[in-house]
């Protein structure tokens, strides 16, 4: 088993907790309160800006040219994702420039950027892979029986598409290449998964 698969399997409890979260289930069946989704969009846009910065730092620290190119590709994908959020914001009248990060959001971005500044390329991938793998997992699970036609269909469509799965796999390849299993690697991956769970909880409770 690869390092990335081992880490993912070791955190299935948190993956399932995210899938079963009422926020995610509200997206699945289209019943999620629009105000909760609007809060999430603003928080996720703030998070994604930090995610893009972390990719840029990983590129700078990459030990090989292939990784350097890959991290820049990932950063570009984040910018595309941000455009999706801008579309939501325009549609629902959200001003992303005035978003104040909530406690769960700030905890996640502070952890991510601290890891990106202080860690090597391997540890940065370990901190970032859970987000990519989890969203691919959620999108695919929610689309298993076909993508329903409701107001959150685009969210499900985005994260269930093969292109997103491919990005998650490419990041996992770098995780496998640049890391070995250590206590620090395990705790970093799990902390990121805990941040994901708390992020959804905060959106639901908003």
Describe this structure in words.
- It is a single chain.
- The chain has 10 helices and no strands.
- Helix 2 (12-20) runs parallel beside helix 10 (183-205), helix 4 (34-61) runs parallel beside helix 6 and helix 5 packs antiparallel against helix 9.
- The model has no long low-confidence stretch (mean pLDDT 93).
- The protein has one domain (3-205): Heme oxygenase-like (Heme Oxygenase, Chain A).
- Helices cover 81% and strands 0% of the residues.
Task: Name a few traits of the molecule.
Thiamine_Salvage_TenA; Heme Oxygenase, Chain A; EC 3.5.99.2; Thiaminase-2/PQQC; mainly alpha; hydrolase; Thiaminase II involved in salvage of thiamin pyrimidine moiety, TenA subgroup with Cys in active site; 206 residues; 81% helix
How do you describe this structure in short?
The chain is mainly alpha-helical and 206 residues long.
């Amino acid at each position: 088993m690869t390092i990335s698969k081992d880490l993912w399997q070791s955190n299935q409890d948190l993956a399932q907790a995210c899938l079963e979260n009422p926020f995610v289930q509200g997206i699945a069946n289209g019943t999620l309160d629009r105000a909760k989704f609007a809060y999430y969009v603003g928080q996720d846009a703030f998070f994604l800006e930090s995610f893009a910065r972390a990719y840029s730092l990983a590129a700078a620290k990459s030990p090989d040219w292939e990784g350097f190119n890959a991290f820049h590709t990932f950063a570009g994908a984040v910018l595309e994702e941000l455009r999706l959020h801008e579309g939501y914001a325009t549609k629902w009248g959200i001003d992303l420039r005035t978003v104040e990060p909530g406690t769960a959001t700030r905890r996640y971005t502070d952890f991510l950027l601290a890891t990106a500044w202080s860690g090597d390329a391997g540890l940065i991938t370990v901190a970032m892979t859970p987000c990519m793998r989890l969203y691919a997992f959620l999108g695919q699970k929610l689309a298993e029986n076909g993508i329903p036609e409701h107001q959150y269909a685009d969210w499900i469509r985005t994260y269930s598409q093969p292109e997103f799965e491919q990005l998650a796999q490419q990041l996992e390849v770098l995780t496998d290449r640049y890391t070995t299993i250590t206590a620090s690697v395990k705790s970093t991956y799990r902390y990121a998964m805990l941040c994901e769970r708390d992020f959804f909880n905060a959106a639901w409770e908003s």
